[in-house]
Amino acid sequence: MTERPRVRYVTATTLDGFLADEHDSLDWLLEQDHDPRGPGGHEHMDGAGALVMGATTYRWVVDHLARSGEGWPYPQPTFVVTHRTPDLASTSVRLVQGTPTDWWPQVVAAADGRDVWVVGGGALASDLAGEGLLDEVIVSIAPVTLGSGKPLLPARFDLRLRDVDRNRAFVVAHYDVLGRRAG
Ligand SMILES: NC(=O)c1ccc[n+]([C@@H]2O[C@H](COP(=O)([O-])OP(=O)(O)OC[C@H]3O[C@@H](n4cnc5c(N)ncnc54)[C@H](OP(=O)(O)O)[C@@H]3O)[C@@H](O)[C@H]2O)c1
């Protein structure tokens, strides 16, 4: 039987808890000073055996790569949760849909005992946390507020602070997910 992986949601957020503005812009993030090899970054990504992301996040990555001229950056198997099968079909990713329980076994098998990196967005991370599948949240908090946008974790959960680091402009907070919060 495949060993259960550690499942980590590693992302950046504004101080008021948004992943992106309402137009999916990450301009507020890209202008920040940070060390890509520092806390909250590549150590978690390099340790991952598989990645999971929502369709909007995937679309943003593809558009960003097209603008920068870079190739697909992730060597790991990458799963994109989407209804847009023909639109998003690509050799770089595997498309899945339905509830997490429908496709999670594929992710676990692909991770092959290594960690799973949940790239985002927030609803996907919440769905996984709601199913008890999300173990940790590692969030780099930027010195920006947006007032509105795409939320980091749009549901009620209890977490426990494990560690805090600094990466230049960011506070990097590392939490264990305890479970749903009643109410
Ligand atoms: N700050 C950061 O570090 C960071 C990290 C990650 C993402 N982001 C940004 O944050 C924003 C995230 O936005 P978001 O949370 O709205 O988007 P998301 O999770 O990336 O994508 C949402 C989309 O995923 C698909 N989806 C989700 N659950 C599904 C299911 N069960 N079955 C089938 N399809 C499903 C749906 O697309 P379809 O129905 O159209 O297929 C849905 O509209 C994006 O702009 C992204 O670029 C920022």
Q: How would you sum up this structure, described in words?
A:
This protein is α/β, with parallel strands linked by helices and 183 residues long. It has one domain: Dihydrofolate Reductase, subunit A (3-Layer(aba) Sandwich). The protein contains 6 helices and 10 strands; from the N terminus they run ββααβαβαβαβαββββ. The strands form 2 sheets. An 8-stranded mixed sheet has the order 5-4-3-6-1-7-10-9. A two-stranded antiparallel sheet has the order 2-8. The model has no long low-confidence stretch (mean pLDDT 95). Residues 11-12, 19-20, 24, 26, 29, 53-57, 60, 81-84, 97-98, 119-124, 150 line the site of NADP nicotinamide-adenine-dinucleotide phosphate (NAP).
What is the gist of this entry?
The protein has 183 residues and is of the alpha/beta class. The protein contains 6 helices and 10 strands; from the N terminus they run E-E-H-H-E-H-E-H-E-H-E-H-E-E-E-E. It is globular, with a radius of gyration of 16 Å.
Give me the CATH superfamily. Dihydrofolate Reductase, subunit A
The sequence of SSEs as H and E is EEHHEHEHEHEHEEEE
Mean pLDDT: 95
What is the name of the CATH class? Alpha Beta
Q: Label the structural class.
A: alpha/beta
* Count of folded domains: 1
CATH architecture: 3-Layer(aba) Sandwich
Q: What small ligands are held by the chains? A: NADP nicotinamide-adenine-dinucleotide phosphate
CATH topology: Dihydrofolate Reductase, subunit A
Going across the major beta sheet, what is the strand order? 5-4-3-6-1-7-10-9
Give Rg in angstroms: 16 Å
Strand residue percentage: 25-35%
| Major beta-sheet overview | 8 strands, mixed
- The proportion of residues forming helix, as a percent range, comes to 25-40%
Give the N-to-C terminal Cα separation. 37 Å
Taken from the alpha-carbon principal axes, the silhouette is globular
Point out poorly predicted stretches.
none
Number of strands: 10
How many distinct helices? Answer: 6
Protein name: Deaminase
GO biological process, one term: riboflavin biosynthetic process
Domain Bacterial bifunctional deaminase-reductase C-terminal: 5-156
GO molecular function: 5-amino-6-(5-phosphoribosylamino)uracil reductase activity
